[in-house]
Structure formats: structure tokens, C-alpha cells
Amino acid sequence: MQPKEGRKVNRSKIRVFRSLFCLLPLMMLASRVQGETKVDPKTALRMLNAQQQQFEKTVVQVTDNVYTAVGFHGANTSMIVGKDGVIIVDTLRGPSSAARALEAMRKYSDQPVKAIIYTHSHGDHIGGANAMVGETMPDIYATESFGSAEGVNEAVNPVKRKRNIRQFGRKLSPLEMTNRGVAPAGTADNDGGKGFLQPTVKVPKEGLKTTIAGVELEFHVAPGETDDAMFIWLPNKKVLFAGDNFYSSFPNLYAIRGTAYRNVLKWSESVGKMAALEPEFLVPGHTMPILDQDLAVAALTDYSEAIRSVYDQTVRGINAGKSPDLIAHEVRLPDHLKDKPYLIEFYGSVPHAVRAIYSGLLGWFDGNPTTLSPLHPRKEAEKMAQLAGGTQRLTEQMESALAAEEFQWALELSDHLKWLDDADKKLARKVKIEALRGLAGREYNAPNRNYYLSYANELESGALSEIWF
Fold first, then answer.
1. Is the pTM of this model over 0.85?
2. CA 68 centroid distance within chain
3. Which of 241, 272, 287, 395 is the most exposed place for a label (fewest CB within 10 A)?
């Protein structure tokens, strides 16, 4: 498809996006056989390297007077040029990255910032605001519920911080790093949050229509990845700023760092509302903008359907009395969606989503009385050793699983052996480390890959206790 006559667009970036449409479905053929998000190591790296193109550092001219800076940190930041000022949508994680992005966008306008808009309250979208203001403080727009992004009790922040580091691979070596699924690896985070400015204009639940610097804007409250999310619509330019309710990956319906339940139905509905606007230009919270109406509408429509499909399949499994683990192994995207490049599980994961939906709707109990009061892990390990014919036989089974590259089974057996007083716990630790790295090498889901590698490194360094390795 050719851009409509008169559009000024970044043609090189359109080619990048189209190349992904051609390339990624071919690479997904291997995953159809093996399932989930594991493929052979070469294919996994090839896929992650291809996804890397989605956040190469650049400023994309979305359309006349609309620019998006990609790759200056994990998220995107955008500038809308008006008659007597500019409007900024999201401000990256900290002042240093925000300043670099603004400098790059300033080649298109040096007018003062009249407004800043936060699409939601995740730190990578709000932490650099003070680097984008001038002598006059702009209005700062956010939803009335702004600040409710995580929804998790502060009491668990210590473990969340550890899991956050693992999910994003923040301490991985350059050789281990690939990317974060919808963001580059190795971002500069030392000043994260230090540029945050409090919102001054709260957008009500029913939304808001206004004009800023001569630009007509619509603010639509749209719960999804966060409860405080909204999307921004420029009706005269047909530009949609989606925030983190859309990016080029299967959505992170659950984050393994630990999050409260993300309302999956509302997320699907919010994306459906975006699709109904039929945008000509779609600017996601992460990854490259889509600069073609047909592609933009198709992506949003498919995204909404995919989320709803996973929800509906999970609910059917629940009502059939199935456990969350069984449902997680059974749910699949519909055939016509599984190879869409914006639905490949680089960031979110269908099995993780299933378990989150189950827990969000029913809590931890799966309905099976066997799981009401399970054995202590040590007692279960002792019983497993007895079944195997003793601790030595269980150890041999663990080593055999590793040698056969049955990495998940090797992990599970190592976790049993760690509880046994007569087991070789150093060997169990070593096997777990090797199995984690074996799993990581086959993962194209970036959070899973980063978590496996990070945990392996912590085990190897002795940073984890004997109980928790």
C-alpha cells in the first residue's frame, strides 16, 4: 500500500514495519510445532533481533506536525506542533532520556511546550517531564484515577523490585542482553522518576474534548494495561496515541514482575473503541508507529479480538472445572491471528495471561480438593525421592533430564532435591543454573528469557538463599 497523496511520512520506517510483516510469520513456523514461546536458539535470537527494529532510535514523522521519538528509552514520546506551541505525549523514564528525545524533536519546532499528557502512570512514561518544560509551566493532563497503575500493596515492593530487575534483565551482561520485548535493553535508568511533575488537569471518566495551541484533542479514558490509562485522538489529523494499550507484541496481560489483576475485558473493549475511530496513524506506547489506515485498523481490531479470545477460552475452561495450569496449556490464539507480527509473544504471554485471568476471577484455589492443603515442599520432596528409589536415583533422573535437554523437568527435579538433607545440593544448584540457561536460549519471549538468565546469575553468584534457589 502506498501512503495517501500529500502525506509526509518516514518511508524508511514504513519499510521496516512491512519487512516485519513478511519476516516474522516465517520464523513462527517452528513455534507451531513446539508450542508456547520456545523455539530453537538460533530462531529465538533471529526473532528477537528482528523485533529490535521496532525500537531503533529515531524520530518518526507520523504526519504533518506530529512526531514520535522512538528508542530514546523504553517507551515512546511524541510532539504535536500547534499554532503557538507544542504538546508532548508521555515523557519517558527520566530527565536525561527525555532531554535527548526533545532535542531530537526540536529540529521540527522550537515553540514552547503548552501541555504535557500522561497516557498512564507507569514510570517509563512520566519520569522525564521537567526536562520538557520551559519558562512557563504547561498544563499536565492525566486521568482522575492517575497513579493507580500497579495496584499492588506497597508491602510487597521489596520482592517486586527484585522481580522487576529480572523481568527486564537490568543486570544482565551485554552478551546476555537482547531486548525487553517492546523496548531496547540497557536503558539509562539512574535518573528514573526524577523529572516527574504532578498532573494539573484531571480528565474525568466521561473523557474530555479541548483545543490546545490550536490543536483539537479528545481524551478518552480507556482502562487496559493500567486502570488509569487513556488514549488521545486528534480528529482532524486522524492520529491515535494508544499509550500502552497497544504495542507491537501480544499484550502483557500479566507482568511476571508481579501486578494486580489487569482487567482483560476492559482492555479488549478499550482497544475496540480505538479501532472504531479508524485511525490513519497509530502511535503506540512502545514500538514503531503504524502509518497506514488499513494496517492500523486491522492491528487494533485483531488486538481486541485476541485479548477477548484468550479471556473467553479461559472462562470456558474454568467453567469446565479445569485447573489454571491445564487451561494455560490448552488456550491458543485463533489461527487467523497467531502469526500477526503485532501479536507474537515477545512481551506478553498467553499462558501467563490465562493464569492471571483465572486468579483474577476466582483467586488461588483451583477447585480441586487435593490442592486445598498440599504437602510441605520438603515432605513432597521426600515422597518423590521414595518414588524414584532414593535420593541418588532422583539425582540421576535430574541429570538425565538435563542431558536430554528436558530443561523444565530438570528444574522441577532440582527444586525437589534442594529440600533433601542427603542430596548433593551443589549439584542441584548447578543443574538448575544450566537448565535455566537452556530454557533462556530457546525463549523469544523477552521477559521469560531475561528472568531465566537473571535468576541463573543470582544462583551462580550466591545471591539467593538455599531455600529459594
1. yes
2. 19
3. 272
